Amino acid sequence: MSTIVEDGRRARGDASRRLVVNHAADIASVEGLDGLTIGRLAEASGMSKSSVAALFGGKEGLQLATVAAAAEVFTADVVEPARAEPRGVRRIATMLRRVLDYSRERVFSGGCFFMATAADVDSKPGPVRDAVQGHLRTWYGYLEAQLRHAVEAGQLALDPEGVEQLAFELISLNNEANGRSLLMRSDRPYALAARAIRERLIAAGADPADLAPLDQAADAASRPRA
């Protein structure tokens, strides 16, 4: 009986944590991680301050849990769907279309959670900056790994330095679309970025037939919102 009661409490605690970090990630995407407070999250989630504090052990614990939750969302929305495609240019195009959609569709109210929070913590050493940096290193590294595989498969014509350079440019185009869209309240930057990404991949040797996901991203961003 005690095990059942303990399991029930753990399940309720996990559900409460998920509820709070979902609110926290959305707030942080707009106001940065420093905008998170126990009181603010208690109000947003309908819980007491003491309950929120007990779940995370303080503001830093809350920030770290929020970063981890946002990373799970990013992986589920961007990386995992692309893995349904074979490794190579088609997977790269799908992944880059997904990352543009993740921002354009406002999975988080402030667009890309990690672009918002990186600007918030980039000059503040500590565990929270390390967590944000760790996710971005993983994302950048994964994109580079996919580009290297495409080179090895003969789908792209790049040397090692060229892979790093192309990965930097592709991520920069996505980041610029995210920032400009938020500032200008327009989807057009996503269409421009999708076309520019497509052209960079073609210049690197990609077969245009493998880049249909980027054409779809540009078309989606060009249509008026309902």
Q: What's the number of helices? A: 10
Largest sheet: none
**CATH fold-level label:** Tetracycline Repressor, domain 2
Unreliable runs = 4-8
The CATH H-level superfamily is Tetracycline Repressor, domain 2
End-to-end Cα distance, whole Å, is 53 Å
CATH second-level architecture:
Orthogonal Bundle
Number of domains: 1
**Residues in β-strands, percent:** under 5%
Describe the structure.
The protein has a single domain (60-222), classed as Tetracycline Repressor, domain 2, CATH 1.10.357. Helices cover 77% and strands 0% of the residues. It has helices spanning 2-31, 38-45, 49-56, 59-82, 89-104, 113-121, 127-152, 160-184, 188-203, 212-222. The longest helix is centred in the N-terminal third of the chain and has 30 residues, at 2-31. The N and C termini lie far apart (53 Å). Residues 4-8 have low confidence and may be disordered.
